[in-house]
């Protein structure tokens, strides 16, 4: 006999299975219909059961919040007057068995990510890595509203239907990329920066010692490196600390800063012989207890500027085991950056003569329960605002311990604090400062009572840099915030304990890295693919990062390049986490590989040996340009950042240049001349000869995508029809849709035509392209540079042949 109870209607009824779905964000618990078993029902705590992650469509895997679902079966909600409780008819053994299975599943996942951490000396880089199937954590940022919402060509908005093809594509990318053999590195001319020489020397010397050797080895290597997933993505620090043979380095240059012998030993193992400018300026202030706002160019070592003081504080007074509280909360705008920060700190503490602090990385895309457990004993918490807010606001007892942090770090602060992205961070800050006894609307803790130090870092603090470049923009960066304004802005957003935090600007004249050269290539908007291909041939075997403004552009450009035998890899937030991880890892490991990415890769990623940044789409805001370009020329390295620019984009480029370089003009002692970005001279005759293969490759890529899309659309329609109990016939559906002309009708027609190419026709196209790729590009004997009457592009890609002919950045006009 069943016991009577008043079960609620499910809030999220499911059609086929009776289940209780638990949104990853807190929501009132829905109640399923009663279980069918006749066993007696027992009261249970939901957390005592084994929740299983609901497998989501790829595009949703990266969503934060509601879309991270866990489920349990056979649970009833029982109402007793005003009190709700949960009951199950499962036996204790059944529950235990399920929990055991859950633990195994989790252990497997943990093993996977820990394996990566061990190999990297780092953490699980969930190189997202975060996303939004659109980037959940990026959504709403001033310049990040394009991804997943359509691209510059207006072919977005179909993310749902493209979802399946993402993984298929991922697999294909993988297969295709497996085939790409690393080839001998071609040596380009070393770019020699003249600007800010003194400071550059200071900033780059240590990095030179530490990084140069590894970069060189990587670039000269002609063998594929380890292939295991995760082993290479952020391994540079781990490699350094493990490199016992070379011995530790002299770190006496750090002594003035007053670090412990343990930290000095760790720095020595990392072979960081001296601090960078931002480190030598910021660390003593933080150690002295100051709140610090630190600005320094990309790749100048900001992570350790706050990481070292956190380690010092930990060493000085490790958190007590009883009544444990974390020391630091570090907030990052993206998942990959969060994991990289954890990795960096883990490497700093690896193999030290002390018990390493426990670091929890709390980002979307990983099981939230596991992260909650990690948080229980974490000494340092690194995370993205969305997931942090979720665990803090729904955790038990967590908030009280997090309130006792000694350091709150806001990395890439301008990004985190910018319009539209502040919401969850704002909630976290509010809750950290709220007096628990005072209730909701109470005033925040007065500054005098705040115990923690607040540390805020970025390469860009100018509000003007975040304003969209499209449309009319202010001339010459007149809206830039000066130090005073930046300070006021931050003081409004963050509850510092000091009335006047210490503002440290390690690069007052420019936020661009000193070893960076900037240029643009002008071409017709419809020929960007062709010019991109040509540009990459001008830079044979250089590790290159191509930025686009949309997921769909990444999906299109990656196979376009792969068809042309270039080792291209995709990275965007619509990819499942593991695929993103793989892309970063391969990009890091394989010399000369090309990463085609959205702005998910723009901030913070520290991948060694990136020599070329290509902006296929103009960045929407100047800060994005600074950060994208900052993926090269890190530390002492040099690199080039090139915009591929349609004539109608030139005005936007001018605005961008004016904003980014406005400070150069204003700097005392500098000539008040405008900064002119160089137009690079790419030989149009060569481009013309490359056109047939580019056109063919584009056609093959577009056809493949159209076919995948058609396939997934059909699947989607069929499923929907099944659920409605009607027949689905794609042809009659299309007939009916005919005549209805709306936005994108022309594109749809093209897609349809493309998707109808037969296998045989596709095979013929591929064979034709193969034939073209095997041919030398004949440019005629009379043309400049020419010695042999033709270029063997294949040989060039192998690093052989006449490099003088295609040249490098110098030959593109970077040389004065
Ligand atoms: N003192 C040092 N000596 C040599 N190398 C260093 C030193 N400190 C940091 N590095 C290395 O410099 C690189 C860049 O550091 P980091 O990622 O902290 O830069 P960043 O300023 O945060 O850059 P971004 O603004 O792009 O996020 C890392 O590979 C790091 O290992």
UniProtKB/TrEMBL annotation:
Alphabetical UniProt keywords: ATP-binding, Helicase, Hydrolase, Nucleotide-binding, RNA-binding, rRNA processing
Domain Helicase ATP-binding: 283-479
Entry annotated with the keyword NAD: no
Acidic residues bias (residue ranges): 125-145
Compartments in which it is found: Nucleus, Nucleolus
Superkingdom in the source lineage: Eukaryota
Enzyme class of the recorded protein, top EC level: hydrolase
Domain DEAD-box RNA helicase Q: 252-280
Name the UniProt record assigns to this protein: ATP-dependent RNA helicase
Source organism (scientific name): Karstenula rhodostoma CBS 690.94
EC number assigned by the record: 3.6.4.13
Pfam family, one: DEAD
Biased composition (Basic and acidic residues): 90-122, 146-222
Biased composition range(s): Basic residues: 1-19, 740-750
Motif (Q motif): 252-280
Family per similarity comment: Belongs to the DEAD box helicase family.
């Amino acid at each position: 006999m069943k016991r009577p109870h008043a079960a609620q209607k499910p809030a999220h009824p499911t059609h086929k299975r009776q289940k209780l779905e638990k949104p990853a964000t807190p929501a009132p618990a829905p109640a399923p219909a009663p279980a069918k078993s006749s066993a007696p029902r027992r009261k249970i705590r939901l957390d005592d059961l084994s929740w299983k992650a609901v497998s989501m469509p790829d595009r949703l895997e990266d969503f934060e919040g509601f879309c991270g679902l866990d489920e349990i079966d056979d649970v009833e909600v029982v109402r007793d007057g005003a009190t709700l409780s949960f009951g199950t008819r499962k036996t204790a053994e059944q529950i235990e068995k399920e929990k055991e299975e859950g633990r195994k599943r989790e252990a497997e996942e943990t093993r996977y990510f820990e394996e990566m951490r061990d190999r990297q000396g780092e953490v699980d880089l969930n190189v997202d890595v975060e996303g939004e199937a659109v980037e959940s954590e990026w959504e709403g940022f001033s310049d990040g509203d394009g991804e997943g919402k359509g691209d510059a060509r207006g072919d977005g908005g179909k993310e749902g239907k493209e979802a399946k093809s993402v993984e298929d594509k991922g697999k294909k990318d993988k297969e295709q990329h497996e085939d790409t053999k690393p080839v001998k590195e071609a040596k380009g001319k070393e770019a020699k920066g003249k600007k800010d020489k003194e400071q550059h020397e200071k900033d780059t010397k240590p990095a030179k010692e530490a990084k140069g050797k590894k970069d060189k080895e990587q670039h000269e290597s002609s063998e594929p490196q380890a292939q295991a997933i995760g082993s290479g993505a952020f391994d540079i620090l781990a490699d350094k600390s493990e490199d016992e043979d070379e011995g530790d380095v002299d770190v006496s240059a750090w002594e003035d800063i007053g670090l412990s012998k343990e930290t000095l030993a760790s720095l020595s193992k990392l072979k960081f012989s001296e601090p960078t400018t931002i480190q030598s300026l910021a660390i003593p202030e933080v150690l002295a207890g100051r709140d610090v706002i630190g600005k320094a160019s990309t790749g100048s070592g900001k992570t350790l500027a706050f990481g070292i003081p956190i380690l010092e504080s930990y060493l000085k007074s490790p958190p007590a085991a009883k009544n444990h509280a974390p020391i630091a909360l570090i907030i990052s705008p993206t998942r990959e950056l969060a994991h990289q920060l954890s990795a960096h700190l883990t490497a700093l503490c690896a193999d030290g003569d002390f018990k390493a602090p426990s670091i929890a990385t709390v980002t979307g895309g990983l099981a939230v329960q596991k992260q909650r457990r990690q948080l229980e004993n974490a000494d340092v918490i690194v995370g993205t605002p969305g997931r942090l807010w979720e665990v803090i606001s729904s955790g038990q007892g967590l908030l009280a311990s997090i309130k006792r942090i000694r350091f709150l770090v806001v990395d890439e602060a301008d990004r985190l604090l910018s319009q539209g992205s502040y919401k969850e961070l704002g909630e976290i800050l509010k809750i950290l400062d709220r007096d628990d006894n005072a209730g909701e609307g109470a005033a925040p803790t007065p500054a005098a009572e705040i115990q923690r130090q607040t540390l805020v870092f970025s390469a860009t603090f100018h509000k003007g840099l975040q304003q969209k470049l499209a449309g009319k923009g202010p001339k010459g960066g007149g809206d830039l915030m000066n130090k005073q304004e930046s300070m006021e802005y931050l003081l409004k957003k963050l509850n510092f304990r000091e009335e006047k935090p210490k503002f440290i600007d390690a690069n007052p004249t420019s936020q661009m890295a000193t070893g960076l050269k900037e240029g643009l290539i002008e071409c017709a908007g419809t020929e960007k693919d062709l010019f991109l291909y040509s540009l990459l041939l001008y830079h044979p075997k250089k590790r290159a990062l191509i930025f686009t403004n949309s997921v769909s552009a990444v999906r299109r450009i990656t196979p376009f390049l792969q068809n042309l035998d270039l080792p291209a890899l995709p990275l965007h937030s619509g990819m499942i986490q593991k695929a993103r991880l793989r892309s970063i890892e391969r990009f890091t490991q394989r010399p000369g590989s090309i990463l085609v990415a959205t702005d998910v890769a723009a901030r913070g990623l520290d991948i060694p040996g990136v020599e070329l940044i290509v902006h296929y789409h103009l960045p929407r805001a100047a800060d994005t340009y600074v950060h994208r370009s900052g993926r090269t020329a890190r530390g002492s390295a040099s690199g080039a950042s090139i915009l591929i620019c349609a004539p109608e984009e030139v005005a936007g480029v001018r605005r961008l240049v004016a904003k980014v370089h406005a400070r150069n003009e204003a700097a005392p002692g500098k000539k008040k001349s405008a900064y002119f970005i160089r137009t690079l001279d790419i030989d149009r005759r060569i481009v013309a000869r490359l056109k047939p293969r580019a056109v063919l490759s584009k056609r093959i890529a577009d056809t493949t995508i159209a076919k995948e899309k058609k396939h997934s659309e059909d699947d989607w329609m069929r499923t929907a029809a099944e659920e409605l109990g009607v027949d689905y016939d794609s042809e009659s559906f299309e007939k009916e849709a005919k005549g209805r002309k709306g936005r994108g009708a022309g594109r749809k027609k093209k897609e349809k035509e493309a998707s109808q190419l037969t296998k045989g026709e596709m095979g013929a196209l591929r064979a034709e392209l193969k034939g073209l790729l095997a041919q030398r590009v004949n440019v005629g004997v009379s043309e400049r540079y020419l010695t042999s009457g033709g270029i063997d592009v294949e040989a060039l890609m192998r690093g052989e042949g006449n490099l003088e002919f295609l040249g490098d950045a110098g030959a593109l006009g970077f040389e004065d």
